[in-house]
User: What shape does this take?
Amino acid sequence: MKIIKYLSLPIVFGLIVISDSCNPDKLNLTNPNQLQPETFFTTENQVKSAVNAIYGSMQTTAMYNRHIWFGNDNMAHENAGNPQLEADKRQYLNFDFDYNHGAIGDYWESCYRGINKANFVINNKSIIDNIPEGQLSPAMKAKYDGEAKFMRAMYYFWLVTKFGDCPLVLEVPSDIQGLARSPVTDVWAQIESDFTDATTELRDKADEELGRATKGAAWGMLGKAQLFQKKYAAALASFNNVTGYSLEANYENNFLEETEHGPESLFEVEFNVAAGNSARWNSGVSDAGLNESCFRGQEYGCMDWFNVFPSINLTSEFEAGDPRYGFCFYVDGEKYNSGANTIAITPLAQSDGSTYPRIGWKKYQNYYKYASESTVSPGQASGINMKVLRYADVLLMRAECKANTGDLPGAVADMNIVRARPSVNMPLYGTPEMDAIYPVSTTEEFMVALEHERKIELCGEQVRFSDLVRWGRLAPFMAQLKAGNQLPIKEKADLKFDPVKNQLWPIPQREMQSNSKMTQNPGY
Amino acid sequence: MLKRTVFIVLFLLANLSLMAQQTVTGVVKDSGGQPMSGVTVLVPGTTAGTVTSENGKYSLSVPAKAAALRFSFIGYTTLEVPINGRSVIDATLQLSATDLSEVVVVGYGTQKRGTVTGAITSVSSRELTSLPVTTADQALQGRASGVTVFNNGSPGTVPTIRIRGLGTMNSNDPLIVIDGVVSNGMSNLNPNDIESVEVLKDASTTAIYGSLGSHGVIMVTTKKGKLGRTVVDFDSYAGQLWNNKRYDLMNVDQYIQYASSADVTSPPPVITDAQYASRLHGANTNWQDKIFQKGMMDGINVGVSSGTENGAYRISGGYTKSQGDMIGTGYDRYNFRSNSEYKHGKISVGENIGVSYSTLHPLQSAGGRSLIQHAIKMAPYLPVYNPDNLGGFQGPHSAVDGQDAENPVRVATMYQDDQLTLDLLGDIWAEVEIIKGLKFKSVAGMEDIRLIDNQFQPAWNDDNLPGGATHSNANAIIGKNMSNYRSLIYTNSLNYAVTFAEKHNLELLGVLEYATIDRAFTNASSQNTISSAIEELTSTTVSVSSASDHYKRIGYLARLNYNYDQKYIFAASIRRDASSRFGSSNRWGTFPSLALGWRLDKEAFLSNVTALSNLKLRASWGQAGNDNIGNYSYASTLTSNMYYVFNNQLAPGTTPSGPSNSGLKWESTSMLNFGVDVGLLKNKLTFSAEYFKNKSSDLLMNLNTAASLGVFNGSVAKNVGSVETHGFEFQLGYNQAEGEFHWSANLNLGTSRSKVLDLGGLASVDPGSQWQNQPITRLEVGKPLFFFYGWKFDGIFKSNEEAASYLNGGQLAANGGVGAQGGDYRIVDVNKDGKITSADQTMIGNPFPKMTLGLNLNANYKGFDLSVFIFGSYGNDVYNNTYYDLTGMTRLFNASVDVLRRWKQDGDVTDIPRPSAAGPNVQISTRGVEDGTYTRVKDLTLGYTLPSRLFGNYISKFRVYVSGQNLFTITKYKGLDPEVGFYQPAGTTVGYIGGGAVTGNGYPLVNFATGIDYGIYPTPKSFVGGIQITF
Assistant: This one.
């Protein structure tokens, strides 16, 4: 009896533990430090936060924080390089980048990270739809889906225009194996499909938080995607749905911090120095941390790093007396910082003893209110948003659609709206004065005028390089540059443009190494 | 105070009474005729027993029916003498080097040495405490074959222990089990509380720990009370530490000569500008002398133990304190322990509880440089102190001195970093003998570690020249960090031991175990802009963070041990473990083992070989696992560290971290072991040899996801790697115990070689930047784990012409894309393609020793004892990264006097390259690789035991000794110390206890950084005197 009494305690205790241990749920532990995808998307804040993350990939150093403008503006030779321009940015000028180019790899990966973030929202639509209507209305559920689709299409747009065929990743991955490339036609179809969904799901600009994708932006980008495929009629219809927008009376307001999200703005990349920028140097692809400011002012600024400046090819495109020259550029001796300081730029000394004229960029610079970028704490930080799509671009694209669908008068009229902006007020196309230099009596003539107008109106806005590619004008333009004398001597000598390979960027080495199904673009 | 407490407890417990029946007395002597105290005298099969007194006498009340007395003493052959009605029984015990009836601690039980079939090395308490080390794990170095210990000279720093080499790119740490309870480590144990340490090395001994056992098991048994009268042990020691080894650096005159040379990176104003002349001739500081000091160590330990047939206890207290021989370092620790055991009929209960409280002052570092690196680089003309500067120290001014080393005395003494650790470790247990031979045992163990790290740095300013100091700290910085670790383990076992038909010995064991570990840490820091007098957090510039994690494990184990007449031995076990570290689909792992043993000496055909006292052949095979891979690796998570701006307000964003691998499972290791044990001349001469071959597979690696999948983490953990490790171990002992002069010699050595078989399809893995944006160590298929990787250095180009003509000027890759010049490295074209490319980088060294050796010599004559302990490490390389500081010449730091014979002009033939700010001559190459082989006299001890008659009845032993450590070292290594372990700078935050730093791609940093000398704390020499008294 006594033994049983003594035995009972450990045995009972033991049995409790045995039964306890046999319960397999004991081993299902959740990480207390991080959210789990399995239990996410139960509140609007969670849905919103997943949508917010998608936009962040536009702020990486490969994208609007730094490299996307160098890549486009340098390849189009809107920029010339100063001697201190770093090699990876000079390679855009020279077309001697290869698959090891870090920022091209970061651009590729930034876009795909944005796509993965969008897929996370789109793939979980059924879970989001389970949120009670009282907490999140069907219209808002659709709106968040629309934002995700708009952004997914944006990233694919940036990919297909630079790399051609791309892996069409539409699901959050479950393993390490990547997909094979899909033909550009499939990628464009996906882009159109996503933008189309967004046009019905998104809200109007007036109803939406500043910075979010809107119905107007979706119609504008859908039209642009259709135009890039030369689907002029469809594109025209899309552009006609862009309503409620107008040109800024003052051209310059498109590029100032205080006039962001004006009547002309369809979609812009947000920057705000006060929101924090501690991670701005190291957000090559991840967007983790605070990178809410932009390097544009520091990099292009003629009183700062002055790494690039407007090329003669660009500045000579301006007609005499075009006020946009003064809105876009600073010249030596010009007052800035509300008149407190004076611009000092000297011509670029060249190897043969000659000089190359230099002016500075004014577009997207903070000099209208600061003496230099370093006066804005913590330095090298601009808060001016970068425009992805503005109404002037829509008007010029709509004009292009009209011209190519037989409505030349309508096309000229659209183009003239841009010319007639109060602060610009340049002579209109179709008038004798303009017919002398840019006649518009045929579609071919119109396209020459349109190229001229787009080059000026949208200079330094990452538009011209893609225009040259889609028009088939890239190779002739490069040949003209190589033959002419509009480039600095060294830049002309170093220009290695190859019409076979340089229509596209190389597929980054990191993709080639990590994805056995990947193929390289021709020539690389 | 401590002593008084101990004695009060002692007197309370000494009142336990004995019950008496009839009395037997006698004297126990050794083979030399000397009386032996402390010999256990027992009546077998009963609980009656005692121990002999200081003069070898015993008196024991024995039950009337008792048939025999058993005399046992560690290290001596146990003797059983029939009583035959006598009342006086004297006995003589024979010394034995390896007593085959000696009990060895194995997982979940004990075994007789004679029937052990696995690879187990035992280390006795005498060996562990013969060196005055502060932690027990340090003392394992050289004591057990196959165990490699990388110590660090900094007091209280936990060493790196590897059993049978390396087997994975993840954790290679062995499992530590203290009194049957899985523990976080043994660093907080008092070495004086340890009875024995058993190192389990092969599958038949480690597979019973299943998912924890693949890198070996260290079983620590603490001292228990022994049957007999009350014994009080007291010991105390004190000593000094020092290190006189220094690098030969330039003095002020040499520095000025060097810094003014035209070929050196442009001279700073301090050299060229007259207004700084007084600065240049203000001091001639030997910065190395300023960071070394005479350290000291002392310790005191008291233990009280006693036992009766109804119970036994031992309580102890200890205090140890070391002040390192590098300034600012120190460690002290209080230990308390109480182990007791009580019997009531068929039920036994007991507890083992240890408490330690320690304070560690780690070696400081600053700005990514170690203290020694700063001491090398500091300008010799700067003084240590300058009362004009806030804080009172002097440092360089970049714009004037052309360098930015930090004053190492300021770094080491002004930064306060007190790491207070409280470690509670213990278990309670109960055992019931249900029927004869069948026992049920229940053990509940726990460990609770609390680390509080208090950091404080006052405001200071190192220089008062205009333009602001290069190094300054405007505000006081306060850091308060806490980390907790709590483990609970509950083990139930059923053991049945039976002998049938006289010769069939069978033992069956079943175990159920349930364990949890909960960890958390909190880091907080703030600044005080107003005062350096307050060392507590304020609300200015606050940074806080915290994290926690949890772990659970369930295990089932069955084991069978069988032997026929102790001649044919068979053992088998199987364990199933489930761990919360893995997804539900692969949560359970199965770990089998099998072992065979054959005692040839018991065979009839060898019975006439009288010299042979033991000959055993052993073989074992089994599988063990490693789940030490971090919690939640299998689960997918979200990251919320994304932001964007909407309506001009910051908005947080959330996205998946990456795909999960719910199929994640254990790393498993198959282990094969063959062993032979030989004992000759009554085991006076013993020899054993082992061969092992381990193959690890399913090693966890992070494989990159395709970039186009856009995954935030960029990688997914997969069980893909495989490594093979093999080696030999030998132990040779000779023990001469007859006559007045006793001596013994024990030699152990172990080898191991690892080879990477598979990296999941990757050809190589490197850990990211380890120096100047270059990796130093690497994993590569077909190569050993963590080898040094770099260029092969082939001297210095004599001239520009020679450099230009070498490989047609093709040495671009190694020179940062520019052509080599005279005075630059000549790199070997390893692949002979006519140019130097990254493909010419190759294996240039292996930090892991090919062989380690321990040799222990002991001699006794009358009261004198002498012991010598020699440790050797052979075939390992060290990457001596201090060569960069000594002869790198990338900037105007102070440097070795060797830079005075640098290459200066065409035709110079020298081994020191030209100075170059761009640093083409500091690329990772064989120039940094040195032979790390060394042989060191770790300990030399001379002791004298005073004759016991001097002290009457109260003192049974009184020994005094003097001992010197690390007095002689034979090595070719040019750094301060060839024992280069793992250097990790002291941090400003704490992480999980038991978690270590990791590389950028998620592997433990200790794997990749061991053997790289970043100015590691060198092992000091020391001299200690002490006394040991037994009452």
Observations:
- Chain B touches chain A through 64 residues (CB under 8 Å).
